[in-house]
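Action item from last week, closing it out:
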Amino acid sequence: MVRRMISGSRSDLRKIVETRPLFVVKDGMTIGKSHSLHVRSGLVFNVQRRGLQLIVTLNADKTLDSDTVKEEVRRHMRLILRKEAKAHLPKRLEYLARLHGYEFSSLRFTHASSRWGSCNNKKAISLNIALMTLPFELIDYVLIHELAHTVHLNHSSAFWKEVSRVDEAYLIHRKKLKQYNPAI
């Protein structure tokens, strides 16, 4: 009966999961590990990066809640997170792979809205640039999770045993990760 209910509700569940999360823009907010957003008033709406700052200049017609402002900030955030991800994640993934005896064939970056990472049967790992919004211990958990998929391409008990071999606190990390959303 439960299986039938879940099966019958699959499309409703998918709509709930795929709904774009609330995107909040705040003055002073952190973007990734090293950038911040700053709001100024001006004559013309503009969003630009200066060093490690994303400067949003708002004119009289725009607020931080305006859709056009949010979309432009989101576009810049993706660029910032991609840059940070490319600088940090390959080194960290390589380090963890070497440390724990894993091999992967390649690494690519995505900004998928529903997953933090993936690994295919060719040991190619994909990582979401939104990982840079997570605490470092959760980034490591996701990297270890994907590296464990190079050994087990499923979520079997053998897979979780492999994850626990490297990350004894994986259950805590797994639970904490559910508090975050990979969508940007």
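Closing note: The domain at 19-177 is CATH 3.30.2010.10 (Zincin-like).
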